[in-house]
């Protein structure tokens, strides 16, 4: 008798998620009998996931609803981090974006039931260019399972060079009958300093079939509120780095920004040597955030099966994530006047202590506040038709229209700040000798504390950022199954996909950072006093040197009063300059139209009695790109003084459009050989692609307003960029030695082409005549020589019709068009990434079990900390590890999980230069316990970040701290009931 283990239906999986129970059914059948084996709970879930991995073509990992439901995870990102090779980024203490095998979020494609999903995101100070999917928008409830395809496959939509992550949802006809569940959870988040109680989370699912199981309906939903917070120490806009040979005596008034004095009396202990790189902080401060998140998810699925061979499905999926944030901060900016300090040894030299004396003119002690909100909404409506045309041929048509939009949810923008200050800093000292940076401020003589009457409102910024992505995709798929021979089946398909993306940004900024107004503008009650120490519990935050007073004021109260006093007429939608603007100054719109076709063959045979399965296929795809962007327009070039030429703006903006196209042939071959019973060797080869960011392919061209005699500079996007292309090799050995237990080791190697660098092209833009590129200029040179001032005076005197005041303008038809050096993104970089994945899972007979996995990743292009130039480097590469122990017996289920990610490079553009940002290693303990009171009722408890870990990032050395973020543990208690 041949035994086959069949996959549990998606609906049963989703029900298990809500109920906290799971049933995996395995069937062993021949023509006469069928054996049913039922395995429940955690063990059943592990068997299901293990079977999917074992029977998969290529390298596939999965996490089922039992895993998602039983892990104490806030969303899908936190659930996926339990899989080997998967790491996550966190926002507001919650999982957000996914990195797979060292490839960051922009390089991974997310699909919903095989359909490519749109993605949207927001940046604080610019328009977003990202393609990454934000899993914070999706609750774990209502999702049946998630599969991660780590190798390429012809039948899978393109865009996932690192992986394709497929989210699976429910279909009622797969599990006929009435089913209904409901769950409730109470959440206590200790990261919030203003949390006034417990927040609720509700989830439920209803499914039923009618008319002899020919019609089905499934409805699932969840509603979650969470109040959280975080407290941060940060170095403003980062660190600036300089060669140790920079020798500036600030006391003598020389001004090379960031220089430090030399010599025995410099006041700098262990001053950096000439062969070192040293860095100085631009500022140091602290920020306190309170966050309220409301997340709503739902899905409706309707199915109709008029005859046994035809099934139609209509589904609608919806998610919305509303996030409101309030913050207060305090900071001190260094002016790089006379300084003293103590330094680490080179060659990367960092200050352990950095101090500046501004007692001659006290500097500002700045305090800011903000109150902003964003909303992210995802919608997807789809239609699917399956037709079993013959016993051998199955055809399927699938169409969906989906959108993702992120936008402001406040009249004050998607990000904002109003700043105020008091001028009391005589000596400012930053201590960087501990994990927590300490800001010390000494007041001028005669000043013992900060006073409300000395506060002045300074600058402000109200930013609006939005992004909307839409996908319309039609897919036709087919499969022909052969009755005999080694060719088991052939899959084929064609598809069309249209992706439309818009990202935009505006900023209403008042640069009155020196302060406005006078004493008496604000009552003292506007400035309540707080203690810094009361808000932090990180080693080093109890330093007696820490500045321990600041005004923690109400953003809306101060903003409203400042708008009355210091309004800027016509600025922002509110007309007074203290609100955001819906008139976007950055507006990028891109359309990508792709057509594709694939064919894939499955071969099943034996080699020396060893079962061999081969899946081989090829996918062809062609993409046309049309990109438009809003840019300023110019009418002329004016020669205003000496060597100064300026573009004359029209005051209007217009869209410019650029186009490009590319095509790719993507082969794949997956082989699996069962060398002995339960031991499988796999080898896979594939090519996969990921598309460039929207900023790199934008249609707009922008030029700098300052022009030289020989022309100007500018930048534009390049829609003709090729996609990133990875050639992938995977090898693995897997041993399935017992039910629910296995060990595996895998090696992966990826050669990636078409990483993006820059090139400069010289071209005329806007056809603007240059006043120094024509006959007038040549005549003046002949008359007065090459003296620029004399040439300009000659033209002013002899050609008054082409001048206005003291400005000379270019003349069309007489002066040649100005040439600009335009920086253009181009494909020019290559990189190799390789690594190992080691995983083990063991289920004991006494109810206990262990799961562990390790991932080691390495790349051949690392960041050079000794270089001050802009560099290309692979971001996000890091080792990771997971350890999970569980117990399940007599209705009691318990898990404890540890997830760890090693240090990684997250950015090469920190601060105002080409400086690195490293996110330090982070590990977190989570746990959950549940108990089945009876077959219908389950109670549970969950705890996240049990040991109260904090995150930290730094620059070229650990002492160059950039950010320290403190959150806190989160506890949930809840109940699930099935009717």
How would you describe this structure to a colleague?
It contains seven helices and 52 strands. The protein is 7% helix and 57% strand. Mean pLDDT is 88; it is low at 1-39 and 248-257. The protein is mainly beta. The relative contact order is 0.12. The strands form seven sheets. It has a 32-stranded mixed β-sheet that branches. Strands 4-9-10-7-8 form a five-stranded mixed β-sheet. A five-stranded mixed β-sheet has the order 15-19-21-25-26, with no helix packed on it.
Number of helices: 7
Which residues form runs of ≥5 with pLDDT under 50? 1-39, 248-257
Estimated structural class: mainly beta
Helix content: under 10%
Note the main sheet: 32 strands, mixed
Proportion of strand residues: over 45%
Radius of gyration: 31 Å
Average pLDDT taken over every residue: 88
User: How far is it from the N-terminal to the C-terminal residue, by CA?
Assistant: 38 Å
Give the overall shape, derived from the CA principal axes: globular
Total beta strands = 52
Please specify the SSE layout and strand pairing.
Elements: E1 3-4, H1 10-19, E2 23-29, E3 34-40, H2 41-55, E4 60-64, H3 65-70, H4 76-80, E5 86-91, E6 94-100, E7 108-112, E8 115-116, E9 145-149, E10 163-168, E11 179-189, E12 199-210, E13 215-234, E14 239-243, E15 268-269, E16 277-281, E17 283-307, E18 310-333, E19 339-343, E20 348-349, E21 351-357, E22 363-388, E23 393-408, E24 415-425, E25 427-431, E26 438-442, E27 456-481, E28 487-510, E29 529-530, E30 550-551, H5 555-565, E31 586-607, E32 610-641, E33 644-676, E34 679-690, E35 701-703, E36 706-707, E37 712-716, E38 724-738, E39 741-774, H6 775-784, H7 788-798, E40 803-804, E41 807-809, E42 815-843, E43 848-859, E44 880-889, E45 892-901, E46 904-910, E47 915-919, E48 922-932, E49 937-944, E50 950-954, E51 961-966, E52 970-978
Parallel strand pairs: 7-10, 15-19, 16-20, 37-42
Antiparallel strand pairs: 1-2, 2-3, 4-9, 5-6, 7-8, 9-10, 11-12, 11-52, 12-13, 13-17, 13-51, 14-16, 17-18, 18-22, 19-21, 21-25, 22-23, 22-24, 23-27, 24-27, 25-26, 27-28, 28-31, 29-30, 31-32, 32-33, 32-41, 33-34, 33-36, 34-38, 35-37, 38-39, 39-42, 40-41, 42-43, 43-44, 44-45, 45-48, 46-47, 47-50, ...
Helix pairs in contact: 6-7
